[in-house]
Amino acid sequence: MGKLIVIEGIDGSGKSTQFELMCRRLEAENKDFFRVIFPRYDKPSSALIKMYLGGDFGSEPSAVNAYAASSFYAVDRYASFKQDWQGYYENGGLVLTDRYTTSNAIHHGAKFSPESREHFFKWLFEYESYLLGLPKPDLVLYMSIDAEVAAERLLQREAKTGKPGDIHETNIAYLKSCVECANHAADYYGWKTIKCLSGGRARAESEIHQDAFNEVMKLF
Question: Residues with Cβ < 8 Å from 177, sequence gap 6 or more?
Fold first, then answer.
């Protein structure tokens, strides 16, 4: 089997930027790898995700329970694995993803109280890894950031692009819950936490990337 590395974080954490920096670095290091960004909005398997985030099932994240919402995303991952990278991975390839099952832990685990959340965490990986047969990550790089900073970045992005955020991105209370849940998940699953802030201020993207790259190199 190959290796699966996931870059994870709440909306506005800079996760996608770090994913692109990691791709460029691996290319520069002449590492062969397969890249995937989830959800795959341009594929039919993301149809229910788009409906959910667009508010078709309700304008609040809580309108769809964690198990149903997780299934929407799991279907897209299953389709990606079967169609695009199963053979590559099973023949020893390196797969790098922007989001994975880990995003379900963060965004839908936040719909539970801290006391009942670990039951969901256990169910989630049993569902995707054992029942659906999706690979388990070898390394999860969790980009840790405060909800307030993330929310400000999302507002700046919306102003720049003119594109309104989805029902996750526009709900600051939900973002705060996601941060608390993400920290819980990182401890529960053993993710590697990469700090995106220092003294309340954003660290340089290059510094964050180097911390992440150092963790990746430990797999080789």
Answer: 110
Q: Sort strands 94-98 and 33-37 into parallel, antiparallel or unpaired.
A: parallel
Report the distance separating Cα 153 and Cα 87, nearest Å.
38
Taking alpha carbons only, the member of 1, 6, 2, 209 closest to residue 104 is: 6
Task: Supply the pLDDT for residue 182.
Answer: 94
Q: In 10 A of CB 209, how many CB atoms? A: 20
For 52, the token pair is 């959910």
Class of domain 3-217 (CATH, top level): alpha beta
10-54 per-position pLDDT tens digit: 888 889 999 999 999 999 999 999 999 999 999 999 999 999 989
pTM value? 0.91
Where do the domains of the chain lie? 3-217
